[in-house]
Amino acid sequence: MNVAIIMFFACALLAVAGAVLLILAREPIHSALALVLVMMALAVLYLLLGAPFIAAVQIIVYAGAIMVLFVFVIMLLNAGVEERTDFSKIAKFGGVPLGFLLLLEIAHWLYHSPVGTAIANGAGSSNEAADTAQLSEMLFRQYLFPFEATSILILIAILGALVLARKEQ
Amino acid sequence: MGFISQHPVLVAAVVKIAVLLFIVMTALAYLTWLERKVIAHIQSRWGPYNVGAHGLLQPLADGLKFLFKEDVTPPTADRFIYTLAPFLALSLGLTTIALIPFGPPSVLFPNGQQIFSVVDLNIGLLFLFAITSMGVYGVALAGWSSNSKYALLGGLRSSAQMISYEVSLTISVVGVVLLAGTLNFNELIGGIPHGSTGQTGYWLHFIPKWNVIPQFVGFLCYLTAAIAETNRVPFDLPEAETELVAGFHTEYSAFKFAMFFMAEYANMITVSCLATILFLGGWLSPFPASWTWQNYLPGAGLLLLAVYCAWNTVSEMRGIARLQLGVVTLLAGGGGLICLYPPIAAGIQGPFWFTAKILAILFFYIWMRATLPRFRYDQLMSFGWKLLLPVSLANLVITAFVIVWPLLRKG
């Protein structure tokens, strides 16, 4: 079997397992670590798609910066173990089957849509995003406005957090 | 033989990783010896002296002691994370070294593989930052999982410090990347085929064109942030023993403690390698290539060491230490003679200069530790955010302007 396919399934499995663990873990730190696992698995998937730059940035930004801050805050607040409640009846009999139905539907759609076949034929693994210089050209020429708009969005979010966190005078 | 000829890349990579791991582990061990010796001499002491000649077997004795000590896990600790943390710290610390090119890419194995670097990535610098940015987890998780207030406070301090200084560290490096226009380590040193010449060439025919001269401010920022990032004096707040016992690794014992210890030294080596590559010309020699006598420097240095050791063996040492130093003498003398053989002398030029530069930076590290007192915590934070970050940002902006200005004037 192809090494890339083995790597894909291993990392996909890790990502899904991490996501499930993130919800099921009762200790907040364990949840955060499970999310780091998801990020790392996604980074490897990007590598398999031939986008090493995106993979490195994924690790630096998500696993190395954002999740470190999450862990830091959880440690700082010394958040305790979560209480486990029983499923409500609606969640048990309505939510869980509906969730599975949605999953099946997405899988079915991907399997039959042109996008799914294109991905299966290796459309994503083109070398378009491989070169850092080309990527920056696209980011700072073609998509300059959306890129700058996003940074303003993040600035607004920071200001919002500051306003919320400020002590009342 | 069939397997080797079918998978040249794989086999070469495994061999290189094995050799590099051996060298790095030995270097880690003897870095502790060097540190204790240098600090001792700065403070007018002898340092380790009794285990082997000049204490040369001390790292081995320490390693054995760590192996045979009882491994205690606090009963209230989170067992899985408590065990995971030291492994994470050490493996991340060692992985980064695989990205470092220790010599020019032109020196090849017979099968066309580079000898002096395990991998030659196009985005090597980014990848290195990706791995080092994960390094905080080892410290933070160790502090949290020990379930002890000293460890938790140490872990919190340490992660706050590492997050803060990582910003300046990354920004101080971007100036160099702007000058070179690449993220590949070999190209950062030797230049890209059609474009910048990297750090090769000379000003006035004798001053090497290393980035440390145009990027001097960036170099200072990088060095400061790097010392803080590796939690060394004067930024060793995480293990301020007068306040926090031993910081995040208070509860760790035996080999898990040794792993944190080794991770710290591995990080020191990585950071020194990066400083060498980015600012000090990597494996380039400081002398013009026409000065051929420099090829014989490594051999001559080793022979001088052999002469010193021989004199020391005869005049100073007694008993078993005399035997050990005799072996060292023979090794240094034999190595020196081999290094004088012209093809080998030319081949090891790259690693020789690279190692010399790394050793100089490591010596500076140790010198700082013996000289400077520790920062107070609020001083550390205000220094990082209010001085280091603005200075490295200004350096970046000015560098960018200097590069773009000629392009703008041309229109």
Describe this protein's structure.
The complex is a heterodimer of chains A (169) and B (411). Chain A is an all-alpha fold. Chain A has helices at residues 3-24, 28-48, 52-77, 89-112, 114-120, 132-142, 144-165. The mean pLDDT of chain A is 83. Chain B is mostly helical. Chain B has one domain. Chain B has a two-stranded antiparallel ribbon. The interface between A and B is medium-sized, with 22 and 25 residues.
Helices, strands, pairings?
The complex is a heterodimer of chains A (169) and B (411).
Chain A: H1 3-24, H2 28-48, H3 52-77, H4 89-112, H5 114-120, H6 132-142, H7 144-165
Chain B: H1 2-6, H2 8-42, H3 58-68, H4 79-95, H5 124-133, H6 135-145, H7 149-180, H8 185-190, E1 202-203, E2 207-208, H9 216-229, H10 241-244, H11 254-279, H12 297-315, H13 319-340, H14 342-347, H15 349-371, H16 377-410
Antiparallel strand pairs in B: 1-2
- Please tell me the total number of domains of chain A: 2
- Written as H for each helix and E for each strand, in order along the chain, the element string of chain B is HHHHHHHHEEHHHHHHHH
Roughly how much helix do the residues of chain A carry, as a percent range? over 70%
How confident overall, as mean pLDDT of chain B? 85
Please count the beta strands of chain B (DSSP E, at least 2 residues each).
2
Q: End-to-end span of chain A in angstroms? A: 66 Å
Tell me which CATH architecture of the largest domain in chain A applies here: Up-down Bundle
The percentage of residues in β strands of chain B lies in under 5%
Relevant CATH superfamily of the largest domain in chain A: NADH-ubiquinone/plastoquinone oxidoreductase chain 6, subunit NuoJ
Fraction of residues in H or I helices of chain B? 55-70%
Topology order of chain A in helix (H) and strand (E) letters: HHHHHHH
Number of helices of chain A: 7
Tally of strands of chain A: 0
